[in-house]
Amino acid sequence: MRIPYTDILPPPTTIPATARSLPGAVAALQEFLHAPPPRDRDVRSASTVILTGAGLSVASGLADYRGTNGTYRVNKTYRPIYHHEFLASHEARKRYWARSFLGWTTLRGAAPNAGHRAVRDLGRLGFVSRVITQNVDSFHARAHPEMPALELHGYLRSTVCTSCRNEYPREGFQAELARLNPLWDVFLRDAITSGALATEDPHEKRARGIRMNPDGDVEVPEAPYTTFRYPACPACLGSPPTLADGARGKVEVDNDGAWSPTSNAGILKPAVVMFGESIASRVKEAAEEAIDGAGKLLVLATSMATYSAWRLAKRAKDRGLPIAIVNIGGVRGEDAFFAGLDPDQPGSRGVRVDMSTDGLLPALVHELQQPRFGAAGAPPGAVLSGVDNTAGGKNIVHQDHR
Ligand SMILES: [Zn+2]
User: Fold this and answer.
1) Nearest CA to 292 among 264, 320, 251, 262?
2) CB–CB of 135/53 below 8 Å?
3) Domain 17-59+113-153+280-398 is classified in which CATH homologous superfamily?
4) Sign of torsion, CA 201 60 49 376?
5) 116 catalytic, yes or no?
6) 250-308: pLDDT as tens digits
């Protein structure tokens, strides 16, 4: 279940203490990634699984929840839509799709950043085998298609029918929204032309009367959301679905093809896990398997305020996996993740860095690409895939052994 947790969390304690500076943080994370897996773990599970959150996409111009300019800090009245509201209310859906119609342009125009590319490089270097993300922006898939991320909360690139579960590309859906809502389309084009949607400064956006929130949501005060129209599922329109009670569903549209409130089926929703919605069991199980098959967990740019993310870290902790967390500001229940840690350990058993991933991850990758001598030099993945590291590990991390 995806549940928002809007409190600002208490600030963290840096672990080890030397990780307060950028070089110190890089050194600690190097220790973490190079360390052999816990003694009781199979060597096959030596590599690290990464769990990412909204903070990783801030450098791409997208909003997060609790960062310096996060929605819960600059837009205190923000309240995301809940799944049950979306399903129950035509008015709520009009409001959601109107805001999403405006937000999609920014999301579509944004691109993965150096943080996503650093995650890609950690995979190529053999340190990371799996990525789990809470983000719905598809940036991991674009940055490293060879190591696809498990998308815990789904993705905005598609819509899904709540009756027949067919998925449709968001791009075509956007064109339908523009066709059904010509005045909104004019407003959107004007906003793009004036640059109102282009600025990355949330304060400037607010000055222009626009608020950007996570998940491609744009808020325009006083906007007539109630006039907004959205299309019905084409498959259900052609062949009405069977409802949960066995009755035939009714899917009706107006003269232009907009979903009519006389319908009781064929409603499209974004292919994201909305707040209050359960994560599909196959996704949940795949995420648990990724944790169970890993030797360490590296958490990036998330406060793990959603339970679905926090419970994965809890699972890692319960299974004895060392955990490293890089996030500006506090993380939900983080004291428990580092309880009992030797204060003098250099990072091999746990790291907590109160820093943005933007500069840190590329610096970490740069250091990991340098030759490292000694038996512990090769990344766990190199041992895994049988790369010969008997030559002292020199240059071993330059090999693409995937
Ligand atoms: Zn359908």
Assistant:
1) 320
2) yes
3) TPP-binding domain (3.40.50.1220)
4) negative
5) no
6) 999 999 999 999 999 999 999 999 989 999 999 999 999 999 999 999 999 999 988 88
Write the DSSP string, 217-241.
Answer: EEE-TT--GGG---BPPHHHHHSPP
Distance separating alpha carbons of residues 366 and 360, to the nearest angstrom: 10
Query: From ligand 1's centre to the CA of 158, what distance in Å?
Result: 13
Rounded to two decimals, the pTM is 0.85
The domains of the chain are located at 17-59+113-153+280-398, 69-112+154-272
- Quote the ligand 1 centre to 271 CA distance (angstroms): 13
In the block, residue with structure tokens 């997060």: 64
Q: Are 324 and 351 in contact (CB under 8 A)?
A: yes
E strand intervals along 116-175: 128-133, 149-151, 154-161, 167-169
Do you know the residue count of the chain?
402
CB atoms within 10 A of CB 114: 18
Q: 161: annotated binding-site residue?
A: yes
Q: Annotated binding residue at 159?
A: no
Query: What is the distance in A from the centroid of ligand 1 to the CA of 235?
Result: 5
Closest to 328 (Cα-Cα) out of 128, 146, 70, 156: 70
Say if residue 102 carries a ligand binding annotation. Answer: no
